[in-house]
């Protein structure tokens, strides 16, 4: 029987889930939940209802796993614990420093409801975390490095848009090639924030705006840009739409380490992603973990899980025998 | 309390395990088991006994997990099922076509003995399998490719050594750069064996041997070389010792796939290894899975496992809280 999936929140990520579900024949989209007026949603899957978020509890027995597609700043800290009482859930909570507290809250709710919740799923946190973890478990005497990009940072783009005189903006995070090369060479360098990445900004300004003030405000913005070498390009709205409408991202996790009687042998483990669409790839990871979450629940598991806790085999619709004969 | 580990077989892999255990303070080498005369073994860990393989059953209560370091052709098909009745075990069985049958035999033994056995651990099968699997679960609409090398193939080197007139040899498997480039570009090419890798051989011949016959015998050897473009270099024993004494290896697993309403977005997931010492890296993977195997046994699990079945968290000595706060 097909796994009945709910999508909670219908932005870029929610639409990515909808597309990803079509690539996974063992899963069916049952409903999309929204805080907007459901009548205003235009789903691309025929016959699937858009439902008011407030009515989600009525779907308790009609959804096998709910995929939460809200933001980490305000939505997920409330939604995941609340919904984990009613549903098996998966989220992509990505505020790294807050993950242990989020995990604890969700774990309590999921246990109360007898449900399974898998949190912080995606690529970072998510597949990058899993690869940092695996590489560290294999090569304990080593160091790991994560580089992000080249890719669009939505948070940084939003921060630029809040500056007076800015109509629109797109910010790219770019790894420094020389830093990447040093890490790949096994040099295990100490790298400051500034030495790892640069930031490149494409900005559409209001006519007559003070461009040098905007550029200065961007470059001096604490937390977001002040610690980086930042480049600002002013372009037209047409150029932004033509050249920067996608949401590509990616990055690389590298661990180098030593083995042998006296650490005489060096090794490099590298995991990299190159993504045309950040939200659609994140959605694809969430869908695989939604399958695993539901299966764990079917076996009687309860509580909060992460990518570290899920046995890989649960992610695939293939039988164990098929995995052994074709993938091992 | 420290996990007490036994090493069964003391060749390159066994010595790699011995080194790797020193990097993992939660594990202790308890004994090395050998089919040779134990008195002839010179271990590099002080105070650890070398024990005759036949006496292994006497160590049943003194070993928490036994790491089997024999070969896949003759040793492991017998040893793993036999020892899985007495010990929790880990092996690196790598004859891909035989894995399902090996799994079934080991599973039966381990269940009879109430033990956990993790088989086919290493990098391929092992970490490469896990990455092929994860990438396929995330991007179902895609294709994956595995390239090996540049690295030494022991089996192919041995095959050359069996040719009349050959004193010693080293064979490297080398990915074709143009094939790698096409795969990385997302072209999902159909690649024949010949189009993926070349084979490079360094051969020390007996004085006066017929070099052109040796070269022809290598290049025409079925299964090993006939399907590849093979280069043969004749060098001196000194050159072989100077330039080719290491056992480096590595490779890359790449999956490209599409997402979106109409597959309009492309993604690339790439996992690569660059290893100075193939046996020492394999040993490091085995040690991490030995920890996981013992932990699973402590929780009451029984039977045969693979890298697909082990929850990642079990591989690390770190607490779950530490994983959440530092690695997720």
Task: Spell out the blueprint of helices and strands.
2 copies of one chain form a homodimer.
Chain A: E1 3-8, H1 12-22, E2 27-34, E3 50-52, E4 65-68, H2 76-83, E5 89-90, H3 99-113, E6 116-118, H4 127-138, E7 142-148, E8 151-152, H5 154-161, E9 166-175, H6 177-184, H7 193-196, E10 197-205, H8 211-220, E11 229-234, H9 237-243, E12 249-259, E13 265-275, H10 278-298, E14 303-305, H11 320-326
Parallel strand pairs in A: 1-2, 1-4, 2-3, 4-5, 5-6, 6-14, 10-11
Antiparallel strand pairs in A: 7-12, 8-9, 9-10, 12-13
Helix pairs in contact in A: 1-10, 2-3
Give a nutshell description of this structure.
The first copy, chain A, is globular and about 55 Å long. Chain A has helices spanning 12-22, 76-83, 99-113, 127-138, 154-161, 177-184, 193-196, 211-220, 237-243, 278-298, 320-326; strands spanning 3-8, 27-34, 50-52, 65-68, 89-90, 116-118, 142-148, 151-152, 166-175, 197-205, 229-234, 249-259, 265-275, 303-305. By secondary structure, chain A is of the alpha/beta class.
């Amino acid at each position: 029987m097909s796994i009945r999936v709910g999508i909670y929140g219908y932005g870029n990520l929610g639409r990515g889930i909808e597309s990803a579900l079509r690539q996974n024949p063992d899963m069916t989209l049952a409903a999309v939940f929204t805080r907007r007026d459901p009548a205003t949603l235009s789903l691309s899957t025929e016959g699937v209802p858009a439902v008011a978020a407030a009515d989600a509890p009525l779907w308790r027995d009609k959804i096998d796993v709910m995929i939460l597609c809200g933001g980490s700043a305000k939505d997920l800290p409330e939604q995941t614990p609340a919904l984990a009482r009613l549903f098996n859930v998966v989220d992509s909570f990505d505020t790294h420093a807050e993950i242990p507290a989020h995990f604890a809250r969700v774990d309590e709710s999921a246990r109360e409801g007898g449900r399974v919740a898998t949190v912080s799923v995606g690529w970072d946190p998510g597949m990058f975390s899993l690869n940092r973890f695996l590489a560290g478990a294999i090569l304990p005497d080593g160091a790991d490095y994560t580089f992000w990009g080249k890719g669009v940072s939505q948070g940084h783009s939003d921060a630029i848009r809040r500056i007076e005189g800015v109509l629109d903006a797109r910010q790219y995070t770019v790894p420094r090639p020389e830093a990447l090369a040093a890490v790949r060479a096994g040099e295990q360098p100490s790298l400051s924030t500034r030495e790892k990445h640069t930031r490149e900004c494409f900005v559409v300004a209001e006519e007559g705006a003070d461009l040098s003030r905007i550029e200065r405000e961007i470059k001096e913005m604490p937390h977001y840009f002040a610690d980086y070498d930042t480049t600002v390009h002013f372009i037209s709205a047409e150029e932004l739409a033509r050249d920067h409408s996608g949401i590509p991202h990616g990055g690389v996790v590298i661990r180098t380490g030593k083995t042998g009687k006296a650490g005489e042998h060096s090794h490099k483990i590298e995991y990299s992603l190159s993504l045309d669409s950040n939200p659609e790839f994140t959605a694809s990871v969430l869908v695989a973990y939604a399958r695993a979450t539901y299966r764990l629940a079917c076996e009687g598991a309860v509580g909060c899980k992460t990518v570290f806790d899920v046995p890989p085999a649960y992610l695939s619709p293939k039988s164990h025998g098929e995995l052994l004969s074709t993938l091992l």
